[in-house]
Amino acid sequence: MIDKRKRIFQAFGAFLSDYVRDLNHLSEDGWALLVEGMRDEAALRKLGYRGRLFTVSSLGRVGSGALGEAKKVVILTDLDREGGVLASKYVRRLTHEGIRTSLVERRRLQAATRGVFLHIENLSRFAESAS
After folding, report:
1. 2 contacts 30 by C-beta, under 8 angstroms
2. CA-angle at 109, arms to 107 and 112, nearest 5°
3. For residue 24, is it within any domain?
4. Half-sphere exposure of residue 106: CA atoms within 13 angstroms, side-chain side
5. Which domain holds residue 101?
6. 35: enclosing H helix or E strand
7. How far apart are CA 108 and CA 111, in angstroms?
8. Quick check: 44 and 19 in contact, CB under 8 A?
C-alpha cells in the first residue's frame, strides 16, 4: 500500500513538473495567471512558475488595472467549492472587461489531483520532485 501511494505521489510530482512548464509556456504567449492569495503565488513560484501572476486580493484592491496590459488570464483558483465560485466570478468580470479568460488549466489540475489536493498552496510539497 505504501509503495502504491508513493508511486501515485511520484506520478503527480512528474505531472506538476510538466504542468508548470506548460504554465510558463502560456506566460511566454502573453497569458497571466490569477490565483487566490499570496500563499498560492508562493507555492507556484516554488514549483518554478516564472510568469506574470496576480492574486484575487490585488484585483480586489486595485481592480483589473492591476493586470496591466494582460489581455489573457488563466484562472487558477483553489479546487474547492469556494474556488469554483471565485473562478466563475472572475471569468464573468474579466470577460466583461474584454479580457480573455481560461479555466482549462484549472480543470486539468483538478482532474490530476483526483480530489487529494484542493488548495493550490499545498502543491508546494512537490517542489523538490517537480524541479
Report:
1. no
2. 110
3. yes
4. 25
5. 2-126
6. strand 31-35
7. 5
8. no
Backbone angles phi, psi at 113, to 5 degrees: -75, -20
Q: What is the pLDDT along the chain (131 residues), one digit of tens a residue?
A: 568 778 878 889 899 999 999 999 999 999 999 999 999 999 999 999 999 999 998 776 655 666 667 789 999 999 999 999 999 999 999 999 889 999 999 999 999 998 888 999 999 888 765 44
* Cell numbers describing residue 82: 469556494
Closest to 15 measured CA to CA, from 122, 126, 124: 126
CATH of the domain at 78: 3.40.1360.10
Helices 38-47, 2-28: axis angle to 10 degrees equals 100
Number of H helices, E strands in the chain: 6, 4
Q: How many domains, in total, are found in the chain?
A: 1
User: CB within 8 A of 46, min separation 6: which ones?
Assistant: 124, 127
Whether pTM exceeds 0.90: no
Cβ contact 87:81 at 8 Å: no
Residue 131 domain-assigned (yes or no): no
